[in-house]
Each structure stands twice: as C-alpha cells, then as structure tokens.
Amino acid sequence: MEKLVSLCRRRGFLFQSSEIYGGLNGFWDYGPLGVELKRNVKEAWWQDMVSGHDELTQHEGAPSTFEMVGLDCTIIMHPQVWKVSGHYDLFCDQMVDCRETKKRYRYDQVQGRWAEAKDKRVFVTSVAEEVEDDIAKRGLKCFNLRNKDADQVKWDGPIVSLDKLSMEELASAYGPDAKEVGTLTEPRDFNLMFKTIVGAMGSEKDAAYLRPETAQGIFVNFKNVLDSTRVRLPLGIAQIGKSFRNEITPRNFTFRSREFEQMEIEFFCHPNDSAKWYQYWRDRRFKWYTDHGLAGERLILRDHDPDELSHYSTGTADVEYAFPFLPEGEYGELEGIAHRGDFDLRSHMEGKLDPNSCPLEVQKGEDGKPVHRGSGKDLTYRDDLTNERYTPHVIEPSAGADRATLAFLCEAYHEDQQPDDKGKMQTRTVMRFHPRLAPIKAAILPLVKKDGMPEIARDLYRALKKKMPVEYDEKSAIGRRYRRQDEIGTPYCLTVDGQTLEDQTVTLRDRDSLEQVRVKLDDVQSEIEQRING
After folding, report:
1. Each residue of 331-349: b (16+ CB within 10 Å) or e?
2. What pairs with residue 267 in β-bridges?
3. What mean pLDDT value characterizes the chain?
4. CB of 324 closer than 8 Å to CB of 410
C-alpha cells in the first residue's frame, strides 16, 4: 500500500488537500491522471446504467423491461428532508475523547487487548493500521518495560474494539495516544452531517446541512420526474454527486473521507416484484465490478445476516473488496444494494417513520403529533394500464466513486521482471487498469527524433487526440518510455519506426502481454477503440 500511495503522488493520481499548508485530514485532491481515472469510472457507470440502457429489451435476470433516467440534485436541501429521513436524529457515530491529549476517536474504531503486568490489568488500545504490533509496543510503554522484558506482559483474549467493553471496564483503557490509564470519556453521539447557514441573517433558523447522501434528492423529486416525463414503473433514477460526512477519524487513504462522491440508483417497482428486482440488481452490480477488472478472491458479495437487516427490508448485500490496508481476511465496502421497501417514500409523505415499529408507523411525540412532519404530498403511483395505485418499493444500489477508484488503483498495481534495453532483468511497475478505465489510452512514440519519424508520430497524435486521451513522448530511450507508460497504466504504445516510413504501419505494444503487432496508420484509431471496448 505504501508503494501505491507513493506512486499516486509521484505520478499525479492523488494529493492530500491543501498539502502546502500541512494538509487537511479526510480530504483529497485528484491530480491530472487521477481525475481522468475517476472520470472514466463515473462515465463507465453512467453509460452502463443510464445513457446506454436499452428500455426495449428485457435484460438477463430482470423480471421485465424497465426505464432509467438521470437526475442532478443540489448539495444543500430543505432541512426537513434530513429530519424526515432520520439523518437528523439517527445519523450518528459514537465517539470518545481523551482528557489528556484532547484527541477524539470513533468508539468502534479503537481496538485493544487486555494485558496484565506488575499487578495491573489494562486494556491497551490503538488506532494504527498495524494494530497488533502497535498494541504490543504500547503495552510495554504502559507498564514502563523494555523490549527485553516483553515476556512479563501477559496478554488475555483477542483484539476487540472498544465498544465491546462495559463502562466499568472503560476506566481501565489505555488511550491510543495517552500516557496514563483511564483518560477516555464515556461514548457520546456525534452527528455526521456538516452544518451550514443559508441566507444573510446567520441565525439558527437559517441552519441547513450538506447532504450526507444523494439518495434523498431522488426521493423528493420522484413525483417531479413522473409528472414531467412519460416514464412508467419499473423505473430507475440515477445520480452521481458529492456527499459529505464529518467522519470522526477519516483513515485509510481515500477509503473513509469527509468529502466523497456517490453513484446511486433508486429503483422504483411494484411491491410484489421487489424481491425479484433486488436479486437482479444484486447480481448485476457485482458483475459490473468483475467486468472491469476486480475479480478473484479479493472481491466478494456479502449478504447481510438477518439480524443486520431492518425489519422492513427483505435483503441487503454489500460488494466488498480486500483492500491492502485492511488486516488479512477483512473486506471493505464498495457498494451496498438494499431492498428499502416503501420506507423512504412514505416518510416523505407522512413524516418520519419509526424504524422499530412493525408495521411501520409515523413516530409521534408526547403530544401525539409526528416528531417530524412529512410533506403531505402524494408520492404514490397509479398504473395507467391497470388503474392500480400503490406506494412503490425501492431497491437502492449505492456505490462510492472514490472507493471504486481506489479499488481499481489497488487491483491495478503490479510488479514483475522484464528485460531492459540491454537484456538485463529489472523490476517493472505496471498499473494494469481495464483499458476502459485507463487515464491515458495510448502513447505515440517516435523511435528516434529524426528521419521524419517525429512528424508522422505528431500527425497520428493529433488525429487520436480528438477521439481519446493520448500522450506524445519522444524523450529518452524507447525502453524507458515504455516503462513510464506502464507505470501510469497506458494499455497501448504506438511506435513509429523505420518500417513506418516504408509501409505506413506502426508497432502496437500491449501493456500486459507485451505482444507487439503491426497496424496500418489508417487503422490505428479503430484498432484502439475495438480493444478498449471489446
């Protein structure tokens, strides 16, 4: 992972935000190559899910044909949206503070293990990525022991998160950065929404929030979409956009950030067909990742256990990837596919629903009125063919554009042994992106800077540049230029050489197989496009 992070900065994939001022934790900037990679991920998703969707054909595994449309909602919405959706009351993480260091930690992300020495029993904690090693070091520090005295510490039980301790046991915790035991406070709720002020008055009445998800914008526009188009259910409404969550401890590169981008679909369908549609989207979204290069044991589709599900949901599954920064055997979520029933549309009609009620009922206060009132608008759907009216059920495939980009970066990174110009074996770093996602599709390289080769190469570069991102490079030996392109993931190199002057063909080199074939100049564009899309 360290090598990948170094490459991302060196080659212009990712930089920490405001780096010249020391950086801002939880925020990341995409460099020249990174912005192309992330843009390709989003465009591939949008093309496959929305703009390239064929509503006339019944897709494999789908109960019927369906329609897809797009939406782009504002980042700041009416505050009542977040009260009705439950985010205002429930969108919280528990945090603990350290009285000594004044640092704040997410309660369930602090890990530790019980240790005994010198007649004391202490829960030694850490938030480091190499948690086992760090706990061992901090255990010695806690008991004021040297490495040679490590056998004096008796460890009891496995490493567990801090939230597994009772409040009495919390008093025996040795904080991740503390010098004394018992400095951690009891956990308390911390709302993850960023608060802001709308308007010139600046009073609490003008408070609003940066959206923590894009989904609610789709729900509140459901009626607008139906009324302004000719679409019918089943219908998917898709959106790509920024979301913001004030994470207590952002970590693991871009995996857990405070500003991120989501690619979400809210799929509205008849309640009787919702289970079939959930299965369809569950399988289709997993296949999308495998089609773009995330395959093998590092990618899994995990169905939630019954005790993880809300009672109004018949199923939720997560597409998960074994990121290199996670302990062996652990996976991080890339996308969640959830069967949400009619929870969201009913909430925005009637008011905040009590998720613990069965059947679902509006949550009411002591005065008998809804805790948070809904819009009162009719968000039901009338089928004009059967005249049936019902509240649609929703299937929600929700993907993270940044997490997907990070997964494709991790999967692409490879090192192998290849001969240099003199035949000596050297380590080659290569980013094996799927050609569709690669930031640069091809590099045009004149073999030497003479004999008319640069002129032909520049003409080819100008022709291809109008159709796809390509690079022109004439500096240094051809082998070094190949290595540079391998390191940024360019799938194809086109070399103009002596034979080009004779028969108007160029050498096409494949990044992964290293196969080299001759292609006519007039056929280069179609050959590259076929390989990218094939």
Report:
1. bbebbbbbbbbbbbbbbbb
2. 236, 395
3. 91
4. yes
Candidates 15, 31, 22, 92; CA nearest to 254 is 15
Which has the higher per-residue pLDDT, 199 or 274? 274
Tell me the two tokens of residue 438: 């690669």
What pLDDT was estimated at residue 312?
66
Q: Give strand pairing partners of 400.
A: 262
The one-letter code for the residue type at 366 is: E
> What is the distance between the alpha carbons of residues 346 and 268, in angstroms, rounded to a whole number?
13
User: Six-digit token pair at 315?
Assistant: 């199923």
- Residues 521, 525, 526, 527, Cα dihedral to 10°: 70
% of the chain with per-residue pLDDT over 70: 99
Identify the residue whose tokens are 């994939």.
13
Which residues are CB-neighbours of 230 under 8 A, at least 6 positions away? none
* Predicted confidence (pLDDT) at residue 397 exceeds the cutoff of 60: yes
Query: For 286-335, what is each residue's pLDDT tens digit?
Result: 999 999 999 788 999 999 887 777 656 778 999 999 998 888 888 999 99
Q: How are beta strands 67-70 and 235-244 bridged, if at all?
A: parallel
Would you give the DSSP letter of residue 90?
A: H
CA distances from 191 to 87, 90, 127, 244 (A): 8, 8, 21, 12
Q: Please name the amino acid found at residue 52.
A: G
pLDDT per residue as tens digits for the range 115-154: 999 889 999 999 887 888 899 999 999 999 988 888 899 9
Spatial separation of the C-alpha atoms in residues 506 and 496, rounded to whole Å: 5
pLDDT at residue 311 in the model: 56
Q: CB of 274 within 8 A of CB of 419?
A: no
CB contact at 8 A, 220 and 345: no
Count Cβ neighbours within 10 Å for each residue of 481-512 and write b for 16 or more, e otherwise: bbbbbbbbbbbbbbbbbeebeeeebbbbbebe
Question: How far is it, in rounded angstroms, from Cα 377 to Cα 351?
Answer: 11
* Model pLDDT, residue 253: 85
